[in-house]
């Protein structure tokens, strides 16, 4: 396996990211070299893997036999349920304490280490602690060392543990050598911080639902000034916003079936106003096959319904909340994408719906299109102040509001997904991102955690020592 690259919008013109080592004379190579990529939930990150058979001594990859290539999105890798094998070959520094001067009995401040940095999820991996006598000129004198493991450390959560600090050289030279001092672990605790990746890898399935604004304020779809207008050469502003967000999030939806609704339109044949009509005209099964299926149903609805109003969010939020309430064991998480052009009409009812939904495994992404101001909807985004209704506060911040996405200037002209469109996903689903609370019953990796306490990939989220920290004391006596 040679290189993998990110793609550019214009096609596969990415950069070579890295190259593995060469494994000789085998049809089943196990590569050791690892690569670290920046992972952005809000972006679609395409990877390409090129595989070569190396027969010559040339350093040029182009002189080797090309075997084939594979394409995959990083989101699909994160969303997969497959395990991985990692091996540590050498020790790496994961923490350095502060220097405590002029004492043979230093007491260091509590510190926190992510479990991933400490042992990468391998509870029995050796953790080595080196103790030095600090010198101003940087030539610190090695006092000694001792070894432990995450599993051994975790057993000491309720008691002091004393470790002997040994200097291998002195131990070999001196027959009566005992140790170079001791280190006492005063406290150790673990706090789990479940991340979005933990939930996905733990088996949580994302269910993506779309709701599109069909109110008259968008303009007649047949007119170039309309936000629903699509020319032979350009998608509508709504279609651009849907593709920009949907193509990213669909990688995390295993069945790729997306319920899609419209709101604010009069429906044939009697002209009844609806705020949660299925775009595919199937009340029993509103799901569409992939984002392309949603787009197809959206365009079909534009030809059959009459744009009207008002702009009500509460009905479709309650619709998704009802579905989310059916499964609250952590195996399902729902994301509702609302694409709209203007000011919400049922603010009080929407707040009530959000407060109720905040206890359920769901999140809401509101994407604005067109030139309208969306400041009024910012109060639904509880980043600073939780949404409240009738004296009740939302249990979590479940709403992300982003404006100016897929905008088109009134009067025609080109349209494109605005630069803020991917930012709608910068805040992953609340309750799966850590720090924003967790929906009731939503626990990652039910029954899959080692010792029943951590997610299946604890290295991704747990922190050793927590807020109480791990304090080391040593009696650095010279021997």
UniProtKB/TrEMBL annotation:
Biased composition (Polar residues): 461-479
Start-end of Low complexity biased regions: 421-431
Region Disordered, annotated ranges: 405-440, 459-479
One Gene Ontology cellular component annotation held by this UniProt entry: plasma membrane
Domain of life: Eukaryota
Any one of the GO BP annotations: positive regulation of dendrite extension
Family of this protein: Belongs to the copine family.
Cleavable signal peptide: none
One Pfam family from the record: Copine
Annotated keywords: Calcium, Metal-binding, Repeat
GO MF, one example: calcium-dependent phospholipid binding
Species assigned in the record: Anser brachyrhynchus
Protein's recorded name: Copine family member 9
Keyword Mitochondrion: no
PROSITE patterns: C2 (PS50004), VWFA (PS50234)
Source species taxonomy: Eukaryota, Metazoa, Chordata, Craniata, Vertebrata
């Amino acid at each position: 396996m040679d290189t993998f690259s990110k793609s550019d919008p214009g096609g596969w013109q990415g950069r070579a990211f890295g190259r593995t080592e060469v494994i000789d004379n085998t049809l089943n190579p196990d590569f050791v070299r690892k690569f670290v990529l920046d992972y952005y939930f809000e972006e679609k990150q395409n990877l390409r893997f090129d595989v070569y058979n190396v027969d010559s001594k040339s350093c040029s990859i182009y002189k080797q036999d090309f075997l084939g290539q594979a394409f995959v999105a990083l989101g699909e890798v994160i969303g997969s349920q497959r395990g991985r094998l990692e091996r540590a070959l050498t020790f790496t520094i994961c923490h350095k304490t502060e220097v405590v001067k002029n004492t043979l009995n230093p007491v260091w401040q509590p510190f926190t280490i992510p479990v991933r940095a400490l042992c990468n999820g391998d509870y029995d991996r050796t953790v080595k602690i080196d103790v030095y006598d600090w010198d101003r000129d940087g030539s610190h004198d090695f006092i000694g060392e001792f070894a432990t493991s995450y599993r051994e450390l975790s057993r000491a959560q309720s008691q002091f543990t004393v470790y002997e600090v040994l200097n291998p050289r002195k131990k070999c030279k001196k027959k009566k050598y005992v140790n170079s001092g001791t280190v006492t672990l005063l406290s150790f605790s673990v706090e789990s911080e479940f991340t979005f990746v933990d939930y996905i890898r733990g088996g949580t399935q994302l269910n993506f639902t779309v709701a599109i604004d069909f109110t008259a304020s968008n303009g007649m779809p047949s007119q170039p000034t309309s936000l629903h207008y699509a020319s032979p050469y350009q998608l509508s502003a709504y279609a651009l916003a849907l593709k920009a967000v949907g193509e990213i999030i669909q990688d995390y939806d295993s069945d790729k079936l997306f319920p899609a609704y419209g709101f604010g339109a009069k429906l044939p044949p009697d002209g009844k106003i609806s705020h949660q009509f299925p775009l595919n005209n199937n009340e029993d099964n509103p799901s569409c096959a992939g984002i392309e299926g949603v787009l197809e149903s959206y365009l079909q609805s534009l030809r059959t319904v009459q744009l009207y109003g008002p702009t009500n969010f509460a009905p479709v939020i309650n619709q998704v909340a009802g579905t989310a309430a059916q499964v609250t064991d952590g195996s399902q998480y729902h994301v509702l994408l609302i694409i709209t052009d203007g000011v919400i009409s049922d603010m009080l009812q929407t707040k009530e719906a959000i407060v109720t939904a905040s206890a359920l495994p769901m999140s809401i992404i509101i994407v604005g299109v067109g030139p309208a101001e969306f400041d009024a909807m910012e109060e639904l985004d509880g980043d600073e102040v939780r949404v409240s209704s009738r004296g009740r506060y939302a249990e979590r911040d479940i709403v992300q509001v982003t404006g100016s996405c897929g905008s088109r200037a009134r009067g025609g002209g080109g349209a494109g997904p605005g630069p803020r469109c991917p930012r709608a996903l910068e805040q992953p689903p609340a309750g799966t991102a850590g720090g924003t609370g967790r929906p009731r019953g939503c626990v990652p990796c039910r029954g899959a955690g080692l010792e029943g306490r951590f997610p299946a990939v604890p290295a991704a989220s747990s922190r050793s020592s927590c807020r109480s920290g791990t304090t080391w004391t040593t009696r650095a006596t010279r021997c």
